[in-house]
Amino acid sequence: MTKEQDGSPQTLKKTPSSNSLRPSASSVFYDSWFRWDVLSSEWDVLWLSTILKLLLFPSYRSTDFEVHRNWLAITHTLPISKWYYDTTSEWTLDYPPFFAYFEKLMSVPASLIDPKIVDLNNLNYGAWSVVAYQRSTVIITELVLGVVLLKGSIEPPIQRIISASIFLHPGFLIVDHIHFQYNGFMYGILLWSILLARNSNKLASGVLFAVLLNFKHIYMYLAPAYFVYLLRSFCLSSTGQVHVKNFLSLANAVIAVFVVSLGPFALMGQIPQLLSRLFPFTRGLNHAYWAPNFWALVTAADRVLLKYAQLTGANIVINDSGVASTSRGLVGDTVFAVLPNVKPIHTFIVTVALQAVWLVKLWTNPSYKSFLTALTLSGWTSFLFGWHVHEKAVLLVLIPLSLLAAERQAYFRTFVLASVAGVFSLFPLIFTPAESIIKVVYSTVWIAAVYIPLSRRVYEYPNSISLVVMDAVEKVYLAGFPLLLMFVSVFPLSGGKSTVNSASTSMETCLSTDGFSCPEPQTGLAQDSLSAAPMEFLPLMMTSIYCAIGLVWSFLRLGFIYLQEESKYQGQLSEIK
Amino acid sequence: MDADELSALPTEGSWKRSNRIRTTSLNPRYAYTNPSPATTRAESPFRPPGTTADITHSDVPTILAPTPRRHLLESSASQHWLNTPPLSPLTSSRALSPQSASTATAFSFPFPQSSSSSSAHVSSTASNALHTNTHSVRRRISSHRRSFSMLFERDQGQGVPGSPGERVVGGSAHKGHEPDERAMGRRWIRWMHKRGLKAWVVPGILVVSLLVKLAVGLGSYSGQNTPPMYGDYEAQRHWMELTVHLPLNQWYTYDLPYWGLDYPPLTAYVSWICGIVGHWINPAWVALDKSRGIESAESKVFMRMSVVVTDALVYVPALLMFCRTWQGSRSKRTQELALLTLILQPALLLIDFGHFQYNSVMLGFTLLAMSLFATGQDLLGAFFFVLSLGFKQMALYYAPAVGSYLIAKCLYLGPTDGARLFVRLALVTASTFILLFLPWLPPFASFSAILQPVTRIFPFARGLFEDKVANFWCASNVMFKWKAWASSGALVKLSTLLTALGFLPAVVGLVRSGIKMQVLVKKKTESTAHAAENKDPAPFLPLLPYALLTSSMSFFLFSFQVHEKTILLPLMPVTLLLSGAPIDSAVYSWGALINNVAVFR
């Protein structure tokens, strides 16, 4: 960037008078872009998005809203020693301590605005005051993301489109501003940490990531890449000697962060209780609605094989509980009928093994771009192969991947595939009709606003037969999404009224706030769905499988690019050491 | 040329930079701050006669950048915002363009104290040109500087306070962020154009406006959760229910106390169609009597979507057409900006998509009529205006203006053509009305049946004004207790009188201009004019928005039984004017002010 800045006045001086028009025109553009476009256009984005978010105040909100309200009440009324023991509400506190402190902080203004908000026994409080307050805290804390992107978008103009696209990401709109969570704030911290890494302030980057981990432990998905990157590029020199000073400062800083976070609870001897809240390993392989990952494909394959076995009477050992699991649709634990069952240890092994591939590559090439790719792939691996992954975790893939999008055509296509599939997979979170229209329109606008300006900048002609075929297949895949959308929205109408209701209740069965902490689905619901139409989960299943195909494919794509072409191709991000 | 060579010629570099800045100032806003051609010419003494490039001074620019031709065109073009033909080579000749440019910079919209001298100058120019130049030139010069005050000035040679802007002064001076947002729109359109994304601007505007409408619709509507009567939402839904289930002759008579239908037949027909669709999707939404007060999320979505769809079918195309016809002489960007301004008009968004009504259909039909008038298709325009009347009787607020425009056009065309047009217009108008009211007319119903809709549409039995209307009656009610002073009948007469007084200037102005123009046409050679003129809009067409504003505002302020939502009617012409006005003109600030005041009512 700095190079570009220095360059522009020089080109102005050097411009020959004979053909001065074009270069000077471009530098004019550059100047004007710098003079007034920066601030005002950033303000435009902020104001417009804020207006839209304000309009979304009265929209549907999931029980995550009540979860967070309950946490406000817990942290406000109870002493710190009881935070992780309280069970007044079923939505117990299951985020790490920094988030609890954060809620404590927010509960102070809340108690001033309306004392009922922080009343522990005032369950399911839904007055206008609490809605407005909690929704505005989301908007305000999301400014962290905005500021970080503002600081980070000093790249060429193309990076500004990326920044705007992250700030306006439909994932945030759906999950934060309709469904209700604080992802904008969290990803703000993550991107801040990444930005610091880019600016070679690796100590601060590591500390911020430790802070982030203590806000929300789902970012452990990304931790391996951070660990390897910081160890290799900060604690070791390029020849492999240990920088003791760097190592000690980083280790001490990270430990200090954890002490601040967990210290009080360690002193009270509550660490086991805290961990049991954070990591409840009592869940099934798939989430209530299958997250679009590898296991969704495996489950689907199992269903297909079961059907095949039932139809043809082939000699396959069929697990009876797996058959029951089929008829129960997507709710509850997943037991395979034909394929061997998957245990948590299996998913763990697969995840670690695949992550190791990226981490070895990162160890050999610890540049910023390599780090970014490895980070994305690390999160992606966990998302695709993890145990009981929640579909909201797809943001862990999409946000870092956005930073790579403008690098070149291969990355851009990966980004488009993953974004479309990932955002679409978030759609079932919002099932109320009015908000459904908004989520679709908004996501369409967003993908168009990102795709149209960026695609022409990074376009490369496919130069081999396989690339042409791949390009065509991917386009067909993308074109399938409108059809899938039509199917998903029309199917409930044709299937009768009960479908919509039970599908919606099934979505409400899991109200967890992240991948680990899903409260048990209501037991009564399995019985309900047993009696319901067998095909009622078909739209959700189709969504899950179709999105999983795209996400797995783009994962392979990015992995291939990372391993094969990373060193050959030098893009704008490669210049950052 | 290398950098070394260039350093030998430092002045050229500086010249280039200044020239570069000038060439970037193609947006009209910058053209104002630019020196006018006259001042540019004043610099010319610095330049020695016969200057060549080899004379180099360090402080005096060697080559004086000639003011590009484009600037003259831009600066004048940005003022005449209405449908003017593109400048022909003849009109942009040396003799004319500086004059037009200088008057254009001094000319601001019809505020007499600032523009009396210059606009008098214009009118003399116009009359000179009239006699010397061809017909098209006369039309160009005279048509794009027309306002009511101009008319009077030309007749009497002095400024007369007749500006419509002054009459609508009311309320406190809220300084909203409208100019800021507008600049935002400008910036965005500019950005899109620079990125080569021109083709996506209009679709982008449409989709974003759709998003805003849907998001506004997430909120509550009028009368939500307030039994037993609920609100406008329930009224509209109730009409769907009764039009679907009842025969036509009961539409205007069924259970009147519970939201009896009180809009003209087109509303009923639209409700009927919506009701059929609703019935097809879910009969419970529109079940007769049983669905009263239904507030399920699905039915709400259906109702909201019905507004969005009717809006997309009528109002959005009308806006597109308006921007293409009335702003036809302007740049693409200005047209897009006008579309953005119009489509996101906050009051309409709030009332239609938040509060819940179908005003955009009525406004859309009126807009279509205006656009058709502008393209010279008066009959079709009249048809659409009758549709507008047939959708909501509120469109009557515009009727004086539209009617007097058409009459003026008839007068303008002269006895034979004018009479022919008059008869045609009368036929079209009458037959459209008959078509709309057909089910209540003799062959299909008894003679008295027509009274059913009519008495429902014009309820003089209600009070003088509703609760919190910001009109004259309300404002003055603080001082004079009108209801205590006079009987209902007397108040009706008084309000009618005041309303008529209010819109009289507009009517008189239009008709008068029609007569005047006719005289002018007669002075001209009569061979070419008539046949061509019949297809073209009348030259006083630019007065139409002002007339609409004056007329609807006078209705809003003085007429009987005014609902606060009717502020939408005067707001539309204001926004139309606003959309065409440059950001620093008087019309713009008035439009922004009125829009803001209206929203905070």
From TrEMBL, chain A:
Segments of this protein annotated with the region Disordered: 1-23
Pfam families, A to Z: Alg6_Alg8 (PF03155)
Major location (coarse): endoplasmic reticulum
Membrane topology: Multi-pass membrane protein
GO annotations of cellular component type: endoplasmic reticulum membrane
Keywords associated with the record: Endoplasmic reticulum, Glycosyltransferase, Membrane, Transferase, Transmembrane, Transmembrane helix
Molecular function as annotated in GO: dolichyl pyrophosphate Glc1Man9GlcNAc2 alpha-1,3-glucosyltransferase activity
Subcellular location: Endoplasmic reticulum membrane
This protein's pathway: Protein modification; protein glycosylation
Biased composition (Polar residues): 7-16
GO biological process: protein N-linked glycosylation
Residue spans crossing the bilayer: 180-197, 204-227, 247-267, 345-364, 370-389, 410-431, 437-455, 476-494, 537-563
Superkingdom, taxonomy of origin: Eukaryota
Coiled coil: none
EC number(s) recorded for this UniProt protein: 2.4.1.-
InterPro entries assigned: Glyco_trans_ALG6/ALG8 (IPR004856)
Reaction catalysed by this enzyme: an alpha-D-Glc-(1->3)-alpha-D-Man-(1->2)-alpha-D-Man-(1->2)-alpha-D-Man-(1->3)-[alpha-D-Man-(1->2)-alpha-D-Man-(1->3)-[alpha-D-Man-(1->2)-alpha-D-Man-(1->6)]-alpha-D-Man-(1->6)]-beta-D-Man-(1->4)-beta-D-GlcNAc-(1->4)-alpha-D-GlcNAc-diphospho-di-trans,poly-cis-dolichol + a di-trans,poly-cis-dolichyl beta-D-glucosyl phosphate = an alpha-D-Glc-(1->3)-alpha-D-Glc-(1->3)-alpha-D-Man-(1->2)-alpha-D-Man-(1->2)-alpha-D-Man-(1->3)-[alpha-D-Man-(1->2)-alpha-D-Man-(1->3)-[alpha-D-Man-(1->2)-alpha-D-Man-(1->6)]-alpha-D-Man-(1->6)]-beta-D-Man-(1->4)-beta-D-GlcNAc-(1->4)-alpha-D-GlcNAc-diphospho-di-trans,poly-cis-dolichol + a di-trans,poly-cis-dolichyl phosphate + H(+)
The family this protein is said to belong to: Belongs to the ALG6/ALG8 glucosyltransferase family.
Protein name, entry field: Alpha-1,3-glucosyltransferase
Gene source species: Psilocybe cyanescens
TrEMBL record, chain B:
Chain positions covered by the region annotation Disordered: 1-61, 112-140, 152-179
Organism: Psilocybe cyanescens
Amino acid composition bias (Polar residues), ranges on this chain: 21-42
Pfam family, one: Alg6_Alg8
A cellular component term, taken from the record's GO annotations: endoplasmic reticulum membrane
GO molecular function, one term: dolichyl pyrophosphate Man9GlcNAc2 alpha-1,3-glucosyltransferase activity
Entry EC no(s): 2.4.1.-
Protein name: Alpha-1,3-glucosyltransferase
Taxonomy, superkingdom: Eukaryota
Subcellular location: Endoplasmic reticulum membrane
Transmembrane regions listed in the UniProt entry: 199-221, 301-325, 337-356, 362-387, 394-415, 421-441, 490-511, 543-560, 567-591
Keywords assigned: Endoplasmic reticulum, Glycosyltransferase, Membrane, Transferase, Transmembrane, Transmembrane helix
PANTHER family the record matches: DOLICHYL GLYCOSYLTRANSFERASE (PTHR12413), DOLICHYL PYROPHOSPHATE MAN9GLCNAC2 ALPHA-1,3-GLUCOSYLTRANSFERASE (PTHR12413:SF1)
Compositional bias segments (type: Low complexity): 112-129
Chief localization: endoplasmic reticulum
Pathway note: Protein modification; protein glycosylation
Membrane topology: Multi-pass membrane protein
Family: Belongs to the ALG6/ALG8 glucosyltransferase family.
